[in-house]
Amino acid sequence: MDLRAYRFRSVWSVPAEPGTVYAVLRELGEYPRWWREVRTVRRIDDDTSELVCRSFLPYDLSFVSSRAREDPFARVLEATLTGDLEGFSRWTIRPDGRNGSRMLFEEEVVTNKRSLNLLAPIARPAFTANHTLMMRSGERGLRTYLAGYQAALKG
Q: Which of 77, 81, 57, 62 lies closest to 134 in space, CA to CA?
């Protein structure tokens, strides 16, 4: 087993229609406004941004996200990641009940950060828990952001 490799899968539900959720998730530069663990996003070009993320544990992850797939009809957003994380992340957004959305986040990465890789044999469960906390926080933040976003559209 490669202790540097991680596969994550999270399911979020939000009270907003899939087109709205897709539009919000597509704007990577806005993530720090609603996802506190996404500390910075620096746009490199139309398809590429550098992100710095930090959850509960005291380490930053810096990586470049490059759009690999953007499909508004299937409502899929996928990015290739390089840097401290190497691999991909993907959002798939589906209708969930009346005017709600179910979002599947999938991520398959290898860590390239030396300190994490040295600690992985003993700290891997903590790294996984750290990711879980980050995802829970992101879902809460997105729900709040979407409430304001939808109110502004109606305004």
A: 57
Instruction: List, for residues 61-98, the tens digit of each pLDDT value.
Output: 999 999 999 999 999 999 999 999 999 999 999 999 88
Domains defined for the chain, CATH in brackets: 5-154 (3.30.530.20)
Q: What does the alpha-carbon distance between residue 11 and residue 139 come to, in Å, rounded to a whole number?
A: 9
| Own/partner pairs, 133-137, CB within 8 angstroms, 24+ separation | 133/55, 133/56, 134/37, 134/53, 134/55, 134/56, 135/8, 135/10, 135/12, 135/105, 137/35, 137/36, 137/37, 137/55
